[in-house]
Request: fold
Amino acid sequence: MIKFQNVSKIYSPKAAALDGVSFEVKEKEFVSIVGKSGSGKTTLFKLILAEEKPTSGRIFFDSQEVQKIKTKELPELRRKIGAVFQDYKLLHSKTVYENIAYAMEVIGASDQEVKRDVAEALEIVGLTNRTNNFPVELSGGEKQRVAIARALIHRPEVILADEPTGNLDPYNTLDIMRLLLKINEAGTTVVLATHNRDIINSLDKRVITLQDGKIIRDEENGRFIL
Amino acid sequence: MITLIKRTFKSGWKNCSREKGLVFANIFILVLAISTLTSLFLLKDVSQFLISSIREKIDISVYFKLDTTEEDIIRIKEEVAKIPEVKEVQYVSQEEALASFSNKHKDDPILMQSLDEIGNNPFYASLSIRAFEASQYQAVADFLNNSSFTGLVEKVDYYQRKPVIEKIFSFVSNMNTIGIVFSLLLVIIAVSIAFNTIRLAIYSSREEIKIQRLVGASNWFIRGPFLVQGAICGFFASLICLVLFTLLTWIFGPKMEFLFPGLNLFTFFIANFWLIVLIQMASGVGLGVVSSLIAVRRHLKI
Reply:
């Protein structure tokens, strides 16, 4: 489903964010990407979303070469991906409800579908009482949950979650992880980037370890080893 | 499609209601731009009126010897009227010249007393000749000096008035050119200010535009609400301008007519009301939409 072929991303000649990375994520797989800050996890997600282009190498999504997709056709790719960003990337001029509904509106869902699914998503992430609040009125954890609801709502093929539990308390962290696992069981591919050792060790799923932009370990039923 | 249009308008309207400060700033700048355009439209008429009234005042006079009969003068008048350069010829008899002088100087006892002392009518009968262009007066004067009735002519005042006539015509023509250049300059300034204000407003939303792209929104899905927002600002700015100009021309129209008889801006405004509405709406909504379109484009490249 997602394939990296010898991908490098160099921002400055002294340090490569990614250096000759190759791996493949299969359909319905749950893959965790671990690594220290600056190891290249976020860059990897940016490349999948075509937010940035690789310096060299090729990236495939559903056998389509990502960097060859025209700007006009990028929305089609991005609608197949539900992304949870480290900095949430919520629309500040929209309410919680509108932020989540936006992901459905862009795919052309009807008003009834939007109403029904957003209500359901709000309930899943426990934000029914925050429907009409703006992002600026939410705590970090609440913002994170809105971002997760927005990423799930349109039933994407893949969920890219960059530190989705970074701002959550242990109780909420567990909830979100359960949610991601449930989504994965339902058939959605999940790629998770995290620092959280306990989460990775409890998942017992495939783990790709990045260090200085290189893959140093790729194990089925892996553990957090750095 | 209908759902998409409905969502676009709803979102544009919501953005307006949530960003009131920004919207007021945009409307204010658009009001300035539309006012400039409307003023130029109105001033075009005022300047045309002033230019034509200056031109109306320019003529040359042919004075006839005192023993010339009225029949001869009427015949000459008909001859002169046939000259292609001549726009209008008016006969002023000795009596009319005297009456006009007396009327003009009735409050000046010394002049009136002098006139009485002369005893008879000292004024010559004359023809006032008006040409289409300043350059054509020379041809008219040449015709008068070389025609069969030259012997009846006492004086043609063209040569005394020539420098003044040429100066006035050159002034009017310069004013026209200056007016056009100045108007164009004003339009460019007004449009640039409006465009840049909207561009800055959209620049502040660049992060939102980027996020919208990342969650899979198409370019038109992102652009739509900004265009609606621009159109709403333009529409309200046009309405404000319409009310403003109706009031201003209503208040100052009669006062201007006092200064320039025959020129009432309010009458002109009402006569051209729908054209002005069209100019204001088209410029307001057009500026709002086109500026938004150009401003959003540069943030959609992600």
Q: What stands out?
A: DSSP finds eleven helices and four strands in chain B. The two ends of chain B are 25 Å apart (CA to CA). The mean pLDDT of chain B is 86. Chain B touches chain A at residues 3-4, 7, 15, 18-19, 205, 208, 211-219, 221, 300-302 (CB under 8 Å).
